[in-house]
Structure formats: structure tokens, C-alpha cells
Amino acid sequence: MFRLWAKAFRDNRLLQDAVICDDSDDTRTHKVFNALHEVCLKFDFSEPIWLENNIQEFRRHSKTRFRQDSFIEAIEFDYLEIQIIEED
User: Fold this and answer.
1) What radius of gyration do the chain's Cα atoms show?
2) What is the pLDDT of residues 33-50, one digit of tens each?
3) Vertex 71, ends 22 and 52: CA angle to 5°?
4) In which domain of life is the source organism classified (predicted)?
């Protein structure tokens, strides 16, 4: 079971969160991208762009934060944090 936890914060307060589960046989990368897509649909956010710092942070800690510089449109929150909480 693969589970990704997504949380949107503003002023250090949790606005929204969701856990996305994926039992498919996809690669880890595809599972992450699919889960992020599902989160953005659920929260009605545009999808963030993976910057180099996001990639490096995610590789090291299985966790990253997308701030305004990762979004093309203006966002109404400070950052979107994603974290893998379970991998098979």
C-alpha cells in the first residue's frame, strides 16, 4: 500500500488535508504524480511545478513543500506539503 498525505497551510494553520492511497503496480514516481494530481483536484488547486529544491528534498526525506514559486497561478495558502507516509 502506498499512501501520500497532503496538507495545505496558511499562517501555520492547517487548512485542508487528505490521504491518497494507491494499490496499483505503478512505479513510485507515477504513484506520487498521480496522488498529487488527485490532491489538486480534491482541493481545487492548480498543479505545482517540481523545482530542483522540491526534487532534492523529496528524494532525501520523502516530503516537500510547494510554495508560491511552484505555482503559476496565485495561491490562497502559504504552502502545500506532501509526504509519503507508507510505501510497500
Assistant:
1) 12
2) 999 999 999 999 999 999
3) 75
4) Bacteria
